[in-house]
Structure formats: structure tokens, C-alpha cells
Specification:
Elements (H helix, E strand, L loop, with lengths): L5 H13 L1 H7 L4 H23 L1 H6 L2 H24 L5 H8 L2 H13 L5 H24 L7 H22 L8 H23 L8 H25 L5 H7 L2 H13 L6 H23 L2
Helix pairs in contact: 1-11, 1-13, 2-11, 3-5, 3-10, 3-11, 5-9, 5-10, 6-9, 6-13, 6-14, 7-9, 8-9, 8-14, 12-14
Length: 294
């Protein structure tokens, strides 16, 4: 990885992340089961390398850092469970855009929990993104679509996913400065897998008996959005400014919407496009304001 261009790796990771919603839609398994196997398979791919090459890092991990990493994994599990379920109730464009509002909630969380300063520029970006989210949330109800009766619920789940993604970022922000990438994601993904396993059992979702096509989709989610998506983004955070990473992630809703148009024949409505664009502009302004103010 030391010979890889960070901007190029980040661009590739955004492309990999853009396939996530499509792969989830193609699966017929319960959404929490899909989330469980995606994270489990990602963990199985990364953990052996981490345990072999970074044994000293695991031994040096403090109880406090391990506990925070575990909490981060729980937040990530709720993020996946809520977001994957939202794709059953609303459009790919709305779901992926709303779940990417996490920079807005990171800014709010940093203000309320970490006493970080929030400027007028940041507030303006937050307000603009929330206005766009409101437009997207009511557009299907007002103008009708394939998700007219369920979009509000699906959009709410996507926002919950965005809030949990923000908790994931806030909880793990300082850890990545002290812990190497693979040990960090191994602990986080381990806690995430265990949490999703408990949720799947509690919801009654079957964990076995799926055809080969489903197992192939689970593996594709782990390799694509899992390893080459989220894990490469975590690596990029050590080489690229976090504000740049946040803005780059805005490419995921655009890529996912285009893939949904081509592969699912899902055409977003005018209000969804306008609301989504407003959300993305608001997120961009928030990330840019945080960069200028630090």
C-alpha cells in the first residue's frame, strides 16, 4: 500500500462503495442477514493477515482503546442494519444520499459532545443539507413513485444509518491515530459481526439454506464495498485530510444512483434529484467549512 497513490486509492474505494446498494437490492435474504455476512466475510479476509503481521499491536492495545473500538463496531452494525433495511422501503438514490449525511451529524456531535466550535459556515451547510433531506423525504409522498407508501419510513431508516455512521466516525476518530489499520478494523469488524449476529437471531432471520447466488453476493459485498471500499477509506484517512475524504464520499450517492438507473431501471424523480443535490451541496459546504475553520 505504501506505493499506492492515496487519491487514486480513494477514487477506487468510492467506486467500490457505489456497488453496495445494488448488491443489497439483488439479494433476497433478510437485510440484517445480508449485513451480517458482508461484515463476517470481510473480517475473515482481513483478520488472518492482521493477526499474523500485527500481533504486537494487539498485545499493546489498551483495555480502554479496545472497549472504544468495540463500541465503534456496535455503531457500525446499527448503521448497516438500518441502511440495508432502508433499501427495501425507498429508492437507491434517496437511501444512499441520506445515509451519507454522516458529516452533518459528525459536526453536530463534535459540537455537543466534544465542545468543538461550529461556525456560521458549518451551520449553513447543515441547514441546507437538512432542507434537502426534508425535500427527499416528502417527494415520493407528494409526487408519487414506486415507493410512495413506504419512502418516509425508508428515508428515516437511512437517516438512522447516517447518525450511526457519524457515531462510528466520532468514536474511532482518535483511535486511528494510535492503532494501525488492520488491528483497528479487525476489532471493529469483530464487534460489528457479533452485534449483527445477535440482531439476526433476535429478528428470526435464517442464517443458512441460501442458494449459491446469495453466497456469491455476500462474498462480493465483502470484497468490493468491504475490503476495497470501507477498509481502503480507513487507510486513506491516514494519508489524506479527513475533510477531503468526507467530500470524496459524496461520489457514492452519484455512483449508486447511476448504477441503479442502469442495472435496476430505477429512475429518480425530479424532487428526489433536487433534494439529493441540495443534500450533497450542504454536506460539501459543511466539510469545507470544517476544513477552513481548523
Amino acid at each position: 500500500m505504501s506505493r499506492v497513490s492515496p487519491p487514486l486509492a480513494l477514487a477506487f474505494s468510492i467506486l467500490a462503495l457505489s456497488t453496495s446498494a445494488i448488491l443489497v437490492r439483488w439479494s433476497t435474504a433478510p437485510s440484517v442477514v445480508v449485513a451480517f455476512y458482508r461484515v463476517l466475510f470481510t473480517l475473515l479476509l482481513l483478520a488472518p493477515v492482521a493477526l499474523f503481521r500485527y500481533r504486537a499491536h494487539f498485545r499493546a492495545l489498551s483495555v480502554r482503546d479496545g472497549a472504544v473500538a468495540a463500541v465503534t463496531g456496535v455503531a457500525l452494525a446499527i448503521h448497516f442494519a438500518a441502511w440495508f433495511e432502508s433499501l427495501n422501503w425507498t429508492s437507491v438514490a434517496a437511501s444512499v444520499t441520506l445515509v451519507q449525511t454522516q458529516p452533518i451529524f459528525v459536526a453536530l456531535g463534535a459540537f455537543f459532545l466534544l465542545n468543538e466550535r461550529v461556525t456560521v459556515r458549518t451551520v449553513g451547510g447543515i441547514v441546507l443539507a437538512l432542507v434537502g433531506a426534508a425535500v427527499m423525504s416528502v417527494s415520493d409522498l407528494l409526487f408519487g413513485s414506486a415507493f410512495a407508501g413506504t419512502a418516509l419510513y425508508g428515508n428515516a431508516l437511512a437517516l438512522v444509518g447516517g447518525v450511526m455512521a457519524a457515531c462510528y466516525v466520532l468514536a474511532g476518530r482518535s483511535l486511528r491515530q494510535r492503532i494501525a489499520l488492520l488491528p483497528y478494523v479487525t476489532v471493529v469488524y469483530g464487534a460489528c459481526t457479533l452485534t449483527l449476529f445477535v440482531i439476526a437471531l433476535a429478528s428470526g432471520g435464517a442464517l443458512t439454506g441460501y442458494p449459491a447466488r446469495e453466497w456469491a453476493l455476500f462474498a462480493a459485498m465483502a470484497i468490493g464495498p468491504g475490503v476495497f471500499g470501507h477498509t481502503v477509506v480507513n487507510w486513506a484517512l491516514a494519508h489524506v485530510e479527513s475533510s477531503v475524504v468526507s467530500v470524496s464520499l459524496l461520489g457514492e450517492p452519484v455512483g449508486a444512483t447511476l448504477l441503479a438507473l442502469v442495472l435496476l431501471a430505477e429512475v429518480p424523480g425530479t424532487a428526489t434529484v433536487l433534494g439529493g443535490t441540495t443534500v450533497l451541496v450542504g454536506i460539501f459546504l459543511t466539510a469545507r467549512a470544517q476544513r477552513l475553520d481548523t
